[in-house]
Design goal:
With about 140 residues, this protein is mainly α. It is about 80% helix and about 0% strand. The protein is built from five helices and no strands. Helix 1 runs antiparallel to helix 2. The longest helix is centred in the middle third of the chain and has 35 residues. The chain is elongated.
C-alpha cells in the first residue's frame, strides 16, 4: 500500500505542477503581441497540457486503487473522502477548462485579460490546499 500511496503523491504533485504553470503561460499569452513569441508560448502550452493530461491518469488510477483496493476512506467517519472526491472532480474540470482556454488562444479567440488569468491561476492552489487538509486532518 505504501508504494501505491507514494506513486499517487508523486503523480498528483506532477499533475498539479502542470496545473500551476499552464495558466501562467496563459497570462503571458494574454499580454503577448509578438507573433513569434505567441507561437512559442502556444507550443509550450500545448505540450504542457498534453503532458499534464498524461500525468493525471496514473494520479487518479492510484487514488482509485487506494480507495477501492485498500479501502482507504471506506466505512463510517470517512466523510472527508467524499469531500475530497468532489474536489478531485473540480480539479479534473479545471484541467479541461484549461484545454478549452488553450483552444481559444490557438484560434485567436481569447477575450480574457492577463489579470483574469492571474486569478484563474490561483484556483488549483486553493483546491490542492483543501484536498491536503481533508486528507491529513480528516475533519469529518
Amino acid at each position: 500500500m505504501l508504494w501505491v500511496k507514494s506513486l499517487h503523491i508523486v503523480f498528483i504533485t506532477s499533475w498539479f505542477a502542470g496545473l500551476f504553470y499552464l495558466p501562467r503561460i496563459f497570462v503571458n499569452l494574454a499580454q503577448e503581441t509578438d507573433p513569434t513569441s505567441t507561437t512559442r508560448l502556444l507550443m509550450m502550452a500545448r505540450r504542457l497540457y498534453r503532458f499534464t493530461g498524461v500525468l493525471s491518469l496514473p494520479a487518479v488510477a492510484f487514488g482509485l486503487w487506494l480507495w477501492l483496493g485498500y479501502g482507504i476512506g471506506k466505512g463510517p467517519g470517512n466523510g472527508w473522502l467524499h469531500a475530497k472526491l468532489a474536489l478531485v472532480v473540480l480539479v479534473i474540470g479545471y484541467h479541461h477548462a484549461c484545454g478549452s482556454l488553450l483552444k481559444k488562444f490557438e484560434n485567436g479567440r481569447n477575450v480574457r485579460s492577463h489579470t483574469w488569468y492571474r486569478w484563474f491561476n490561483e484556483v488549483p492552489v486553493l483546491l490542492l490546499l483543501a484536498i491536503v487538509i481533508l486528507v491529513v486532518v480528516k475533519p469529518f
